[in-house]
Amino acid sequence: MVIAAAAVTPKCLGLHRVSKQAVISALLASGKAGTMVKRPVEIGAFQFVVLSRLRATQLLAGCTPRVAGIHTAAVMAQMEVADGAVKRLYLEEGDDVAR
């Protein structure tokens, strides 16, 4: 099991000095342990982050998620990009895009 210890720091828990086991216990109790999404090898790290951020913005605006699960918008966006449900759109020269 992968535990993202950076997600909950001792200051976030309201404690100044805690053991590693206390942080792990807090992560397991909060349900935030093991939510790390693996980036596909064919997508660069920068492109993965940018696509995930753009998709998270769409999800927060009310768009329907393309993968099943109940997660935060950021994690859901990363899962969608990693699964290939969201891809980058390459525009040709002269294409008109309304913003």
Describe this structure in words.
This protein has 99 residues and is an all-alpha fold. The protein has two domains: 36 residues, no CATH class; 63 residues, no CATH class. Helix content is 38%, strand content 0%. It contains three helices and no strands. Helix 2 crosses helix 3. The longest helix is centred in the middle third of the chain and has 16 residues. The radius of gyration is 17 Å and the shape is elongated. It starts with 19 loop residues before the first helix and ends in a 16-residue tail after the last helix. The N terminus is likely disordered.
What is this entry, summarized?
This protein has helices at 20-30, 45-60, 73-83.
Task: Write the topology of this structure.
Elements: H1 20-30, H2 45-60, H3 73-83
Helix pairs in contact: 2-3
Number of strands: 0
Identify the overall geometry.
elongated
Structural class label: mainly alpha
The largest sheet is: none
- Please compute the radius of gyration using only Cα atoms: 17 Å
The domain tally reads: 2
Order of helices and strands: HHH
Low-confidence stretches: 1-15
Strand content: under 5%
First-to-last CA distance: 42 Å
Mean pLDDT across residues = 76
- The amount of helix comes to 25-40%
Which oligomerization state do the chains in this entry correspond to? Answer: single chain
**Continuous helix count:** 3
